[in-house]
Amino acid sequence: MNTTITPEREKLMRKLGLTESDFVKPLPQPFPWSQPFWDAARQRRLVLRTCLDCSHVDHPPYLYCTACGSDRHEWRTARGTATLVAYAVNTYSVPAAFIEDLPYALAIVKLAEGPQMISNIVECNLAELRNGMALEVVFHEAAQGFVLPKWRPTRGGSHGAA
Amino acid sequence: MARAEFAIIGTAEVPCGHYPQRNEFEIAYTVARDAVRDAGISMTQIGGVVTAAHIMGSDYNTEMFFGRLPEAIGATNCRAVATTISGGASSWSTRKTAEGMLTEGGVDYVLVVHAQRFSQFPPNEQVKFFALAGADAEWEVPYGMTYNALAAMVTQGYMSATGTTIEQVAAMCVANRRWANLQPNAMFYSKPITVEEVLSSRVVAWPLTSLMCNVLADGGSAFVLTRAELAQAAQKPVYFAGEASNYSHRSIVHAKWGDPGQMAEFARPVAEQALQRAGIGVNDLDLYEIYGSYPGLQLILMDALGMAPAGTTPGELVASGETSPGGKYPTTTNGEALSFGHTGTGVGFSVLVETVRQLQGKAGKAQVPGARFAVETCGGGAFMDVHFSVLTNEYLS
Fold first, then answer.
1. Most buried of the four, A146, A158, B128, B284, by CB within 10 Å?
2. Collapsing DSSP states into helix, strand and coil, what is residue B185?
3. Residue B172 CA neighbour count, 13 Å, CB half
């Protein structure tokens, strides 16, 4: 861990009896069948597992197509647009690794291709969030070179690069 | 009314709260003995023992599924032992396991036990557990997803779909607390609260405040299940007249009800089916023992049940005080997870045990006079399933 302990963090550690490791963000532990999603995210691409037999899009992906059971699939690049279905703003009582991010928005996001995902809404004033609003994907690097697709209100023009 | 197949004839419970000096084994052994005594049978009549797993994992789980309990309590004629778990729905799934034992032959009484303790874990571990238990480790936890945030989304969705107000959500917490104030075993027995206090407590996951969220607690309870025809010999049997269940999802993104505000529409046919199987209507119910785990979820399940008078919403009913002690719609009379205490897999057990006590006329200060029919609900996971059961103290032969 190459994190420097800020005075704020030191205060938190004392107050809550935490160690430095408590501040390490939990990262996805991919399964063999989900690894391509995270590999693409690292290259700042949002991909979805699409069945070659029935065209069903599975997200999160599982071992085989959840609609027809087929193993035949390909990873297709998503449009990177979505709508905000519902959200909550965490302000307190979160695992230590997320205390320094408070407040942050969690959302159910519905992709243009159909599937929904849990994600963060970022790069905006959280007070302006409203259900149904248009979103575009952005890629935020979590720890250790792990990239998480997140979302922000659509700004118009080109989207996706951050 | 439909003919019942199974009945509970005895229950037991230990106080719920922060009891670091206790341990799961002591709690389990205590409620096991007390439930069998309450049933009016001897320990040697117990033919099966089912335990619910401790949700945070411990030696207790290993010991229980290695068959410790029958040996420790002197159930020398026990023929079948099992551990069953489905999170917050474990009071249902352990009971279903027990029913299977009772139909196999040679087993007449099954003891079902839940014991759980959280106080051995430091506060940060508890926050972490409660935050992460409902979230998918790969797809949600890395985003800082928490149980409270999940409940906040579903509550907010229901509020905007129905016009339910945050004051009404707070009133649900107060109604729970008023019942808990009549329950000596409740974690918040001696601590009344007001709507203003609920609303002004710290925001945890907007729009939920800290008094709308649960506190993990130590506790345990047990019941004895038997076949209905055998139960008639017991002093105060309580029969399962009809029930129904449905499963939706692991992650809320796959909820079968789609929009997070529509959970009541998923639960409604399940509630209707349970009532139909019991052969009664919602107006025949005297008690509404609803386990939501969050006040918004209680309102959603009340909505599904259709218990509010025509033209009114559950939120209005709760705010009117009619679901509180003395009201016409007594709801979750032990105080629910919010005010009784959240014992992990155990909340459904405490709600079920309270339902039985009410129908036995053994609910003490919280007793609803002359209650004959009750609906009891539970559910687990990240709101993954719903179970509605109709219980009654009347046997139809």
1. B128
2. coil
3. 31
Q: All domains of chain B, ordered by start, with CATH?
A: 6-120+220-231 (3.40.47.10)
The reply to whether A86 touches chain B by the CB within 8 Å rule is yes
- Summarised one tens digit per residue, pLDDT across range A85-95 is 999 999 998 99
The 10s digit of each residue's pLDDT in B170-212 is: 999 999 999 999 999 999 999 999 999 999 999 999 999 999 9
Average pLDDT over every residue of B29-47: 98
Whether residue B139 and residue A60 make contact (CB cut-off 8 A), yes or no, is yes
Compute the nearest-CA separation of A110 from chain B (Å). 9
**DSSP label of A96:** H
Look at the alpha carbons of B106, B41, B367, B118 in this order and tell me if their dihedral is positive or negative. negative
Strand order in the sheet with A73-77: A57-58, A47-51, A73-77
Q: Looking up tokens 């599975």, which residue turns up? A: A58
Contact (CB, 8 A) for B24 and B117: yes
Model confidence, pTM: 0.95
Whether residue A91 and residue B137 make contact (CB cut-off 8 A), yes or no, is no
- Token pair recorded at residue B10: 């005895």
Task: Out of A17, A88, A146, name the one closest to residue B149 (CB).
Answer: A88
- Between the CA of residue B308 and those of A114, A132, B12, B31, B331, what are the distances in Å? 36, 30, 32, 36, 11
Q: How far apart are the C-alpha atoms of A80 and B48, rounded to whole Å?
A: 55
Q: Count CA within 13 A, CB hemisphere, residue A115.
A: 20
How many Å lie between the alpha carbon of A150 and the closest alpha carbon of chain B? 9
As a whole number of angstroms, the distance between CA B288 and CA B236 comes to: 20
The reply to whether B66 touches chain A by the CB within 8 Å rule is: no
Q: Is B127 within 8 Å of A92 when comparing Cβ atoms?
A: no
Chosen for mutation from B132, B146, B216, B253 (greatest number of chain A CBs closer than 10 Å) is B253
Which residue, among B315, B274, B275, B310, has the nearest Cα to B292 in the 3D structure?
Answer: B315
CA distance A108 to A106: 7
Peptide bond into B207 cis (omega under 30): yes
